[in-house]
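Title: Comparing notes on inverse folding

I've been comparing how different people in this forum approach sequence design from structure. To keep things fair, I'm posting one structure and asking everyone to reply with a full sequence. Here's the target:
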């Protein structure tokens, strides 16, 4: 009985400690929240002229090309970083949120596409790699193109309409812009894929290797078809 009583006392002490920890955490969170709200209040009261000047800059902003948009967004983000919390402060002002969001979206999308275009166009097939590994690398690149570019193409008309509403250049979204360059780069990627397949087919001689040859050939045809389906030369002429 004494042993059980001691066990119960220990359990009670542990429970009391847990409750105390929870209470301390709650008090800490409340204090942190209060400090944050106070900092926001100070920014709202003291940074009004600064925020209004930025808002006017956003409303009046016009651009010749998408690179101007990127530069403007970088500048704006740097200016807004001086606020304790951008959204918490800006909601107290007449801030052009829709245009700001559209500018950021266009700038980030364009920069992501540039990175993808460079990655695909600069891809070099390393002959030292095993065929399977090399084909996997090219297939992975094609998947990135499909996920990024072809997803964008499905909503391109809507995006163009939205960007034009805010004076954002849209030529980069056309087949003559960076989107078109990625399509062309994917065609070149397909050629590299087929060249690797052809090299491997030449190395697979003998009747016993025929199933492997057929499988490789099928992989090559599927890869080329996927590229042509979304970004082949016929569609690029438009």
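Reply #1:
Here's my take.
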């Amino acid at each position: 009985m004494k042993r059980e009583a001691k066990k119960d006392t220990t359990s009670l002490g542990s429970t009391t400690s847990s409750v105390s920890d929870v209470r301390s955490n709650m008090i800490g969170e409340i204090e942190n929240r209060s400090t944050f709200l106070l900092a926001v209040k100070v920014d709202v009261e003291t940074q009004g002229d600064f925020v209004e000047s930025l808002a006017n800059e956003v409303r009046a902003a016009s651009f010749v090309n998408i690179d101007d948009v990127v530069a403007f967004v970088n500048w704006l983000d740097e200016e807004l970083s001086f606020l304790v919390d951008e959204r918490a402060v800006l909601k107290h002002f007449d801030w052009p949120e829709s245009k700001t969001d559209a500018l950021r979206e266009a700038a980030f999308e364009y920069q992501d596409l540039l990175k993808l275009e460079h990655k695909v166009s600069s891809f070099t097939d390393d002959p030292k790699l095993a065929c399977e590994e090399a084909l996997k690398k090219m297939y992975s690149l094609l998947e990135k193109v499909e996920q990024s570019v072809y997803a964008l193409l499905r909503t391109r008309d809507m995006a163009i309409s939205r960007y034009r509403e805010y004076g954002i250049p849209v030529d980069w979204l056309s087949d003559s812009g960076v989107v078109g360059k990625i399509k062309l780069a994917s065609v070149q990627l397909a050629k590299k894929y087929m060249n690797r397949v052809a090299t491997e087919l030449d190395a697979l001689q003998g009747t016993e290797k025929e199933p492997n040859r057929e499988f490789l050939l099928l992989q090559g045809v599927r890869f080329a078809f996927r590229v042509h389906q979304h970004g082949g030369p016929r569609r690029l002429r438009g």
